[in-house]
Amino acid sequence: MIKALHSGFAAAALLALAAAADAHPVTYRLTTVTDGQIGSVSFHSAVVTIEFKGDTRSVQTTTAGGVTVHQNAKGSANVTVVSGGTTIMTKFLPGEIFARYDVSNGVVGFGSSVGPYYPFSIDCGNVSCSGSGDWGPGWIGTTSVDGIAAALADPNTDSPDYPSDATLNLPNDLIQPTILTGYVSACASYVLNNFYWSCPAPPTVPLKTQLGTFYVQDSSGEMQVGVFRVLSGSGD
Amino acid sequence: MAFDRAVPIDSTHLEGFMKTRAVGRLIGRGMRTRTAMIFAAVLACGDAAAAPTTYEGLVVTDVSLAGTIYRQAEVTIIFTGDTNDIGTFNFSNNTIVPGCLQPQSPDYCGIVKGVTRIRIVSGATRIDATIDPGQVFVALDSKNGGVGFSSFIGPNGFEPVYPLGLDAGSVYSLNGLAAAANVTGKAYSCIGFAPSTTYTCAEPTRFPLNTNRGPLAIYMPYYMSQKGVITWHYDGASLNAGVFSILPTGAED
Predict the structure, then answer these.
(1) Which residues of A65-168 form beta strands (DSSP E)?
(2) What are the domain boundaries of chain A?
(3) Which of B144, B142, B143, B134 is nearest to B111 (CA)?
(4) Cβ distance of B222 and A33 shorter than 8 Å
(5) Looking at residues B241-251, what average pLDDT do you find?
(6) What is the pLDDT of residue B11?
(7) Which among A224, A229, A233 has the least Cβ separation from residue B170?
(8) Which residues on chain A are in Cβ contact (under 8 Å) with B225?
């Protein structure tokens, strides 16, 4: 009995050590162009980068209905807005946003209390952000692969064209360094009207930063693409 | 529409260009000589008040500098020029007119006179290098929705999307090359790109750009193809994304 307990403790300790060995700082960074406001400053077609710094041990993976989602909610986040000659950088208040990657549908970005796809989601694809279709705001219904996130979710979509080996070899979790691209959605609530979908208004409850409230909203009439990166360490 | 201020090719205008390997391939070849004539005319057409502007292109990709490969590096190409040097290229009649006339013009506009730099950030490593003159220029094809940095390099003498070209995304919203703007698009770095047909991208280290830090090559690792043969289609075959910015003087990093 004592021997069995010792074995159990040893196994648990080994698992803990393995987990600790796997844990390391990680940075998620998304860059795109969009409209929005930070504090009292509104911006149009600005380069916006959101960076979230956490630890890989905080990545949670869930599978429901055949859909696998990785999420990391523990960490600190900041946003940088560059427009013309002006750069604004500030931190989100704790708990405002989290990193999220739906590997089954190829949707990746940052979610919040506003919704799992806001402020930014790559390869959102349609008004409900389920990843089918692959266009940004303004259109709906195409099935072509237009980014790495979509290509990893379904490499056969554009057969007989296939993703390059370098694409297929990219990790698709929130732990290993990778790059994920696609059309970007920056909207709290879309309106679909005759195959066109638009983002008529910012969210009623904005996100909070050290410089005040923050929101983003798809640039009117423009489809933007973006880059989401998973970086080892602090990303500096 | 003819260029009414055409000047003979002046070796002083081409001095930087002549130093590159590409110019050797231009001489004696019809299309390439035509390109050189256009190049010279563009250099000659800026006599208005200076309006320095910086053009930046950002992409995450693989890059080789002086024999070292940096994977998934953050690559920024920075071109500093003058908006008074913007000209519209017309390859069909060897002419150029000042200003950016697209989308009416069948060809595209750009600036060839300027300084091109590249910044590579890979982990804790940051490298800044200056690309030798005459190799890279800013180009806008608003008729077809493309923008970025083209070059006179490789087996074709002229490469529209190398070292970096963007299409689709919000590139169509660009209104010339003079006004401040930020756009995103699908990112290409391909020697051998050909619109409206199939193509393959050459190994870029075979045709390096020369910099003060050694030979430079940029790869395009993320794309759709049939066994390496890329089929051009609307909205492109590249799976990568990039940002192109037109910045007022002094706004660049």
Answers:
(1) 67-72, 75-83, 86-91, 97-102, 107-112, 115-122, 162-163
(2) 25-232
(3) B134
(4) no
(5) 84
(6) 25
(7) A224
(8) 161-162, 164
Nearest CA in chain B to A150: B239
Amino acid making up residue B235: D
The per-residue pLDDT for B89 is 77
Q: Which residues of A touch B58 (CB under 8 A)?
A: 31
Name the residue type at position B143: K
Side-chain half-sphere exposure of B15, counting CA atoms within 13 A: 3
State pTM to two decimals. Answer: 0.85
Q: Tokens 């982990």 map to which residue? A: B123
Q: How would you class A94 by CB atoms within 10 Å of its CB: exposed for 0-12, middle for 13-18, buried for 19 or more?
A: exposed
Q: Which residues contact A6 (CB under 8 A, 6 or more apart)?
A: none
**What is the SS3 assignment for B41?**
helix
- In terms of C-beta density within 10 A (0-12 exposed, 13-18 middle, 19 or more buried), how is residue A47 classed? buried
Residue of B nearest to A85 (CA): B251
CB pairs under 8 A between A and B: 112
Which portions of chain A are predicted below pLDDT 70? 1-21, 125-127, 130-144, 194-195, 235-236
Chain-chain contact of A163 with B185 (C-beta, under 8 angstroms): no
